[in-house]
Amino acid sequence: LEGSGSLVVHTAGPLDDLPAPSAGQELYDDFLPAAVRERPGHEKWFAVVDGRGRVRWTMTRNAEFDLLVLVARATPAAYLAYLRAEGISYLVAGQDRVDLGAALRRMRDRLGVTRVVSNAGGGLNGALLRAGLVDEIDLLVLPAAIGGQLTPAIFDGPPLGAGELPVALRLLDS
């Protein structure tokens, strides 16, 4: 699982040079082409949260991984039409933005996904943690330190609200 911010600069907006979708085309239903789902050797998904429609895809498959884009009902229709035209699978979860819990449930229910690994940046990882969607954290520590106020962190997000407590963790192994 990745966030679109891992693939485009943080200031990138929705792709704006896409053709208008065809009239009457239903775009806000999940799109899971049989050619992808039933491809021999298909075992894994490379899922990317891109509710704003910011990523122009140049690769849709890598070895056993097929691309799956997680979108919302507010995702621009032209972007969804682009994904369909390129044969890129997507699931719709959420209204204004991608609802991560709903997206993970849809991945389980529609695709049989039983394990999700997030290699995302601090923003998506922080959202997953705050939503109670993290079961385990595997952390690899390298002998280096990077500082600075805008340095990416493992978990990012807005400050805790009044009365909100940090997520409690339990060490399993080190």
| Class by SSE composition | alpha/beta
Shape: globular
Largest sheet: 5 strands, mixed
Tell me the Rg in angstroms.
17 Å
What level of helicity do the residues show? 10-25%
Treating each run of at least 4 consecutive H or I residues as one helix, how many helices? 4
Secondary structure tally: strands: 5
The secondary-structure element order is EHEEEHEHH
| Low-confidence spans | none
**What is the terminal-to-terminal distance?**
24 Å
Overall mean pLDDT score?
Answer: 90
User: β content, as a range?
Assistant: 5-15%
Written overview of the protein:
With 174 residues, this protein is α/β, with parallel strands linked by helices. The chain is globular and about 50 Å long. Helix 1 links the parallel strand 1 (2-3) and strand 2. It has helices at residues 34-37, 77-85, 100-111, 122-130; strands at 2-3, 44-49, 61-62, 65-71, 89-92. It is 20% helix and 12% strand. It is built from four helices and five strands; from the N terminus they run E-H-E-E-E-H-E-H-H. The longest helix has 12 residues, at 100-111. The mean pLDDT is 90. Strands 1, 2, 3, 4 and 5 form a five-stranded mixed β-sheet that branches.
